[in-house]
Amino acid sequence: MDYLEKLNPQQRDAAVHKEGPLLILAGAGSGKTSTMTHRIAYLIKEEGIAPYHILAVTFTNKAAKEMRDRVEDLIGEGTNMWILTFHSACLRILRKNAEFAGYNKDFVVYDPTDQKVVIKNCIKEQNVDEKKYPPNYVLSIISDCKEKAISPAKYAQINGVDFKSKIILDLYTAYEAVLKKNNAMDFDDLILRTVQLLEKNEDVLAYYQDKFKYIMVDEYQDTNFIQYRFIKLLAEAHNNICVVGDDDQCIYQWRGADIKNILDFEKDFKNTKVIKLEQNYRSHANILDAAHSVIEKNKGRKHKKLWTDKEKGEKIKYYRADNEKDEARYIAQEIDRLHSKELKYSDFAVLYRTNAQSRTFEEALSVREVPYRVLGGNRYYDRKEIKDIMAYMRLVQNTADDLSLTRIINEPKRGIGDKTLEKLKALASVRNESLFESLTDDEIVEGLPSKAVDSIKEMITVLSQYSQEKDNLKVSDIYDGLLVRTGYLKNLELQNTVEAEGRIENLLEFKSVIYDYEKDNLQLTLSEFMEKVALMSEIDNHDAEENAVVLMTLHSAKGLEFPVVFIPGMEDGLFPGWRAFEKADGIEEERRLCYVGMTRAMQRLYLTSADVRTLYGKTDYTKESMFLRELDKSLIDGDAIYEKKSSTGGYSGTDMGRNPGWSQGGGNDGYSGSEIFRPFDQLKYIKQGQGTGASGSKAGGSDLKEGDKVSHNKFGEGLVLSMEGSTVTIAFDSVGVKKLAKDIAPIKKI
Questions:
Q1: What does DSSP say about strands 709-712 and 747-749: parallel, antiparallel, or unpaired?
Q2: What pTM was estimated for this model as a whole?
Q3: Is 700 or 503 the better-scoring residue by pLDDT?
Q4: What kind and span of H or E run contains 88?
Q5: 367 and 392 share one domain
Q6: Same domain, 46 and 72
Q7: What integer best gives the mean pLDDT of the chain?
Q8: 705 class by beta-carbon count within 10 Å (0-12 exposed, 13-18 middle, 19+ buried)
Q9: 525 CB contacts (<8 Å, ≥6 apart)?
């Protein structure tokens, strides 16, 4: 058991736990992956548990691969243990039991781009106004329903039959019908259909309960209802379930994560053993203490506090910029300065609350010729040429996939216009067959426009041949054949443009992707390859070896670490976002997001804000984030953070003196200077009519308090964020955060 000697006492205690439910509360950087992998190794090597009986699930391919590699380092290669993402595990179960789930084994998986095409077609076919019902909005409702196991019929029961709900119901029903007809599932279906399969088939459930006698779940705080249900079904027979997570890092509630899953784990599984991993191996002590001083303000959490035996390190640097350009200039300057002290560019990360903030940092870094990489734009796999060739490959895998055939039937041009395609779809529908089946009928093809006949016949021939032989060919051979024989590559070459050349380079790079997978698996099938690509996440594309500054959202940064981290935009209304004030637990989730961002830093942490910020085309004065005000001020170096007047009449806060106005009596809204010297607000008040709104309605802000919903003559409805003296700060639905004089603003409480 020498391999356990490197673990600390708490990690070792968790690693040698065998029977019964186990909850490992693992703080940021506390070695949770090491603990999990050593527990798996212990079960196999010391307790004699067959790898076949262990299931370990997590959320990203990157995390699953890291865990798999570490386990193999400890016990050797060649195990048939399942260490997979939720989606991959469910996909494997569905492939084996497709007929029980109502699909054939060659079903395809639609990614978000494919889903959008399907729902847009449904919207068009039902004559729904796309402006009133945007595809992304409809898909978000459908996804939410599937995560909660709400079928179209159940949706109708819950929401009634009002006009809006009826349209959503019809679109949901049509969307499901298209997927079923195409023998396709979306990502949400993978877990939902697996749960339904297990619930409706006792023999299948018993098989997997017997197979997986020991279950481990990573990042349990991020599980949603249907993932929770999947795990609970499998664990009910033996009750040997170990979950690892951190309630302080639950930051995905907006996409279905339910923090109650981890907070109530001890209620769900009786006699649970709880182990806290509180020793941090990532960050210096000052960073951990600062992060704790923020997160401890949350009420919905299990008590724990990270500590480290590392040195205290530098204090957290705070900079209050004049505006967003000054903020970006400062950060680029600091990166330049620290990089000259032998830190690599890839050691730096700028973590922002919204993607819209990235532009100014890109510009500032470009001016200094600092290489950077934006994580969060279009993925490589979302580029047109890659989507096209993947559609061809999906058709080889499953010729019934109408969505893929619709995408490539005229890529390259084959003389099939929109009207002809619509007629083909209608005909296929009448004949109750797929588009591909219809096009195998010579009579139908001969009825197409003359210029399309030969090219369509050639396309069908090529796809049919590769489909029949897909199990006998390497994926790279199928790919090469499709590129050449469909005419796709030749068409790009004939264009002879810089853009076409770039597309060709991307297609060649895709060949490298295939080779990489084939190198790891000589028997790689087309189905396996398509699943691996479809299940890739954005973070899986992060290359830690690329020497460039990383720009990314705070949400995307979870699971990563960097020697130097910058968190800009520390302002109320931006971070925390103003929408957070509308939900009961909104601020707590934003605070967890702040905690996650801070604990990504290993050596240095920078926090910045701006006096004035232009975002989404609007310019506003800002107030420093409430999270800055919650920080332990003894841990901060740099600019002053505004604090309310103390009982002695002075101002509290760090006194580093960038803004001389602090010592002279700064305004009570977080700005330097007194309220009388804020011309924009003064002008706004004058235009409002000195105490009456434009319509002459009297101001109604005298009886307001934080949390009140209000209505404003111009800005519409909003939420009161704070009351300070004669100023009320309100987050409006239409224009964002505004500061108003409560005695004269035309507002009334709702």
A1: antiparallel
A2: 0.72
A3: 503
A4: helix 86-96
A5: no
A6: yes
A7: 86
A8: exposed
A9: 470, 471, 475
Tell me the two tokens of residue 596.
Answer: 């996650």
Residues 368 and 429 occupy one common structural domain: no
Q: Give CA–CA dist 594/358, Å, rounded.
A: 18
Task: Say yes or no to pLDDT of 673 above 80.
Answer: no
How many angstroms separate the CA atoms of 577 and 573, rounded? 4
Q: What is the 3-state secondary structure (H, E, C) of 347-380?
A: HEEEEECCHHHHHHHHHHHHHCCCCEEEECCCCH
Question: Can you give the residue range of the structural domain that contains 580?
Answer: 294-377+544-639
- Same domain? For 328 and 390 the reply is no
pLDDT tens figures, 518-536: 887 888 999 999 988 877 6
543/521 Cα distance (integer angstroms): 22
How distant, in Å, are the alpha carbons of 179, 304, 330, 551, 555 from that of 355? 32, 32, 19, 9, 11
Asked if residue 663 belongs to a domain, the reply is no
Cβ-contact 675, 667 below 8 angstroms:
yes
In the chain, the N- to C-terminal Cα span, in Å, equals: 66
Both structure tokens of 359: 């532009």
Structure token digits, residue 569: 């935009």
For the annotated catalytic residues, the residue numbers are: 32-33, 218-219, 249, 600
| C-alpha distances in Å from residue 189, one per residue of 58, 107, 108, 680 | 17, 12, 11, 52
- pLDDT average, residue stretch 72-100: 90
Distance in angstroms (rounded) separating the CA atoms of residues 326 and 361: 10
Burial class (CB in 10 A: 0-12, 13-18, 19+), 239: middle
Helix axis angle, 61-75 to 32-45, nearest 10°: 40
CA distance 468 to 436: 14
Strand partners, 319: 608
State the pLDDT at residue 725. Answer: 80
**What pLDDT score does 742 carry?**
73
Residue 371 to residue 355: CA distance in whole angstroms: 18
Cβ neighbours of residue 483 under 8 Å, at least 6 residues apart? 389, 489, 507
At 632, give phi and psi (nearest 5°).
Answer: -65, 110
**Residue 610: CATH number of its domain:** 3.40.50.300
Q: Looking at 587, 608, 639, which one is the last position of a domain? A: 639
Instruction: Please answer whether residues 723 and 716 qualify as being in contact, where contact means their C-beta atoms are separated by less than 8 angstroms.
Output: no
Domain limit, last residue, from 639, 662, 691: 639
